[in-house]
Design goal:
The protein is α+β, with helices and mostly antiparallel strands. The chain has three domains: 58 residues, Scavenger mRNA decapping enzyme, N-terminal domain (Phosphorylase Kinase, domain 1), CATH 3.30.200; 29 residues, no CATH class; 188 residues, HIT-like (HIT family, subunit A). It is 26% helix and 30% strand. The protein contains eight helices and 14 strands. The chain has a six-stranded antiparallel sheet. Strand 4 and strand 5 form a beta hairpin. The structure holds 7N-methyl-8-hydroguanosine-5'-diphosphate (M7G). The site of 7N-methyl-8-hydroguanosine-5'-diphosphate has 12 residues, from loops.
Length: 292
């Protein structure tokens, strides 16, 4: 069927990163001569599946010592799934994004943004096609949780593709704005307060209605720098240590709103810090300009 996909033609080129703790692996390879990134991730164990696991699984003893014993448990196959993300054809930038690398913190003034960062992101950032597909109802249509169609204040709220929606512990949604002229936090001024307020209020309300998760259980933030330069806001479960939710990259929406209320051009003027990977072209540009 159209929703089935074969990985048997996948040829591995390199392991980009893996983590025993996160139980995932990022692989660069080829499918039919096309550059591809595949991400495999073991999914959390859900409380609802415990009765089935206890009833239908086979245990093999590994060791026993006094009151302690460890086993290998083989659950029924449908409870042993691996969440798989495929990027194909992948660009070199995708391969770099997932490669584990040393990072450096850059501090960017408003002027640095205009003279270094903006020209750089205009020349080489990820395609926004997936974003436009969502806004134009060409992809992920049935996944949309909430939409405000207003062209200026509106947005689409849907599950982030990092979340499989099977448990609330790692709840992760994104709100993507309808207007297409806002690249990132840097573009925001007090003029955009109605948009930001709408995303916060309507987004939280939609998540409460759909998932029963209250506003005080959500971490609502923007990334700077984002990977995709079309304004979007992350909504993650407060109890989930989401990738990229650290202070060096995440800006809480409520702080953003307060900063703009206090100073309309806060994000145009202020120095902003953010991490970059060792081989990020932006780091090279900052170094060329003697700013890093
Ligand atoms: P970001 O801050 O621009 O970059 O966030 P990051 O990926 O470095 O965090 C973009 C968000 O959009 C991320 O949380 C991605 O997981 C998510 N995302 C990316 N793509 C390509 C898709 C997609 O095709 N569908 C959905 N639903 N989410 C995506």
């Amino acid at each position: 069927s159209a929703s089935e996909f074969l990985l048997s033609g996948f040829e591995t080129i390199a392991i980009l990163r893996d983590s025993a703790r996160e139980k995932n692996i990022f692989i660069h390879g080829k499918i039919a001569d096309q550059e591809t990134v595949v991400i495999l991730e073991k999914t959390p164990i859900r409380e609802e599946s415990l009765p089935e696991i206890f009833k239908d699984s086979r245990l093999t003893l590994e060791m026993k010592n006094d009151i302690y014993s460890t086993y290998q448990l083989r659950p029924p196959p449908h409870l042993n799934e691996i969440k798989t993300t495929v990027v194909c054809p992948a660009t070199e930038k995708h391969v770099k994004k997932y490669l584990r690398q040393e990072t450096f913190l850059l501090e960017e003034s408003g002027e640095d943004y205009l003279s270094i960062t903006l020209p750089f992101i205009q020349s080489q950032s990820f395609s926004l096609q997936w974003v436009y597909n969502i806004l134009e109802k060409k992809a992920e249509v049935e996944r949309v949780v909430f939409e405000d169609p207003d062209p200026q204040l509106g947005f689409v709220l849907l599950p982030d593709f990092k979340w499989d929606q099977k448990q609330l512990d790692d709840l992760y949604l994104i709100a993507i704005v309808h207007r297409r002229d806002l690249r990132s936090l840097r573009d925001l001024t007090s003029e955009h307060l109605p948009l930001l307020g709408n995303i916060r209020t309507a987004g939280q309300e939609a998540i409460r209605k759909r998932y029963g998760v209250a506003a005080d259980k959500l971490r609502v933030y923007l990334h700077y720098q984002p990977s995709y330069y079309h304004l979007h806001v992350h909504f993650t479960s407060l109890s989930y240590d989401a990738p990229g939710c650290g202070v060096e990259r995440a800006h809480l929406l409520s702080d953003v709103i307060q900063n703009l209320e206090a100073q309309p051009r806060h994000y145009r003027a202020r120095r902003l810090s953010f991490p970059v990977r060792a081989d990020d072209g932006l780091l090279a540009k900052f170094r060329e300009a003697g700013k890093a």
